[in-house]
Amino acid sequence: MSEREDKTTDLTPTDLALDLEGRHSVAETIIGKEEDQKSPLPLTLAPDDPENPRNWTPRKKIMVTFVLCVSVLTLTYSSTAYVASLPALMNRYHISQEVAILGVTLTVLGFAAGPLLWAPASEIYGRRAVYVFTGIFYSIFSWGAAVSNNAASMLIFRFLIGFFGSSTINNVPASLGDYTTPAERGVYSICYALMAFGGPSIGPLISAFIQHDAGFRWNLRVMAIFSTVLSLAVAFVPETHGPTLLKKRVAKEGKAPSPLTLRMIANVFKTALARPIIYLFTEPVVMLVSIYLSVLYGILYGFFEAFTVVYLEIRGFSSTSYGLTYISLGLGFLFACVLLATIGQKLYLKSAEVDAQRGLPTQPEARLALAYYGAILSPISLFIFAWTAPFNHVHWIAPCIAEFLFATSMLLIFTGFVPYLIDCYLQTAASALAAGMASRAVFGGVFPLFSVQMYHKLSVQGASSLLAGIACTLAPIPFVFRAYGSRIRSRSIYAVTT
Prior knowledge:
The chain is mainly α. It has 19 helices and no strands.
């Protein structure tokens, strides 16, 4: 036993926290000494501690999950519901289609910028404080976009909506990891995934009817009302971050360290803000997952513009009938959730049992049981879309089936990799997720800017086949983790090894 381990063996979690704070700087205590061979996890509540969120009742976990996940839905819905108002906004503000589309791009780019701040902030100040703070501004800027009188202010507000709203889309998976056990995590993550991807698919569907019957102002107002109601609801969600709860207990016992100085706070944020970027470029697990999910995310958001070429320009659908085609995406996401909750959970528990028989904790790679099938299905669905969508003699149900299959594959992949990152990084999962969210948002924001032009220049067959080819090159990634995941994690200074 090392000298450090010998000194701390008999200490309570509270005393241990104080002991560590006495021997290290605040930044080192919160995020670990990065020069160590293995970066230590932040101190947290013991598994059998009554205050540990993992000991909540199932009813409380379900209620908190519902509120947090629907708050994610408000943001993802708003990101694409805006699309239905593009012609009206172009008319009202006398702007080009490219400028109008920036309302989608800037919101999604806000997804990229926000997590770099809100993820480390949630690991320093707790999840709830960040949700409450960002929720206030998220609601304010949603109303700002609804009442803006010029294109410039509306576009600025759209970016700020994505920036402040991104605290939920990034941190909610980390919150789920705070209060769920590994066996529960996959099921609860399904709800998050459905809201994260269901929002973009139902946004154009619902907003098409709002825009048709009430105009673009009411379309924007509905988004603002939705975001405000859920921001208020999230304010009542209790704290879930174990290290934050432990620090609060220390403070109540009167053993808290002296208040942080501005310089200490600056050092903490300087290091913590760098962590998502460090993870993205130095952690092979985060890098590969981010690349894969980013491309899929970009294709999804590119679809929202490409569908206008297929269904409005080529097939001649009306604006409301065109909106109905998004039902196929929603059904695909829903079907994937059913697969994950049934077959996926059984496969995970089976893998956990096998690992237990080998005397090992459940390996993170057990999360990828259905991601393997999703990786194969993704390019197949894109090829089907490529060679059915632009031909009027092919029934419209064929490309809709392709959309259904793509949505199913995407959710199978996404819902495998998000819990996988949480299992790999645990208490610093928010930073690992922020790295992935930032890269996904960049792709998702940029794709709509050129997707229409790409589908016009390369044709629907050429553009969709190109995307299918890219999906083929990325398909081996989950299989790489299956074969070498444990070895890759063992070489990481941040990932938890088992």
